[in-house]
Design goal:
single chain; Purple Acid Phosphatase, chain A, domain 2
């Protein structure tokens, strides 16, 4: 199972659409919040795309849930934007919530910094941002590939020539 994960696109739909078009087969698309109006355009332009998404702190009037707990490829995933767990300071609150929900993977955003980290047997996965990366790196997104060997996380960075001025 190939899962494309993004967060914090903040209206940079042209880059998001480019990533999806170049991605090849996507079994599930996950957006970890702060999408702006990107999801409206996404469902219009990619109507067959299986989608899971949550609202972020900048999605003030969104009807999206703030958190989701779901199964994918036989694994339990917890999706949240992360701001309610103060992830810009540490992952303690998020770790405790992941343990409480018996999640195998916790997907979050908010920090604009990509992260792959294992703690207490849980994979914590932040794809970074397609809008602006707080680490000074290029915009990024992530993949979770689920197969017989378990879950393989990967972060991809956008080439510098593709990320200028909202494109």
């Amino acid at each position: 199972m190939r899962i494309l994960v993004v967060s914090d696109t903040h209206g940079n739909y042209p880059l998001l659409a480019r990533v999806i078009k170049a991605a090849g087969r996507i079994d599930l698309f996950i957006h970890a919040g702060d999408s702006g109006r990107d999801l409206t355009a996404l469902t219009r332009d990619f109507p067959g795309l299986a989608l899971k998404a949550v609202a972020g702190n900048c999605d003030l009037y969104s009807d999206l849930p703030r958190e989701l707990l779901f199964q994918a490829g036989g694994h339990r995933l917890f999706l949240t934007h992360g701001h309610r767990y103060r992830v810009k300071w540490d992952l303690l609150r998020l770790s405790l919530e992941g343990q409480e929900r018996q999640a195998e993977v916790v997907i979050f955003g908010h920090t604009h910094a990509p992260l792959i980290n294992y703690d207490q047997g849980i994979l914590f996965f932040n794809p970074g941002s397609l809008y602006r990366n707080s680490t000074g790196e290029r915009p990024s997104y992530g993949w979770l590939e689920i197969g017989p060997d378990g879950i393989q996380p990967r972060i991809e960075f956008i080439a510098a020539k593709k990320c200028g001025a909202g494109v």
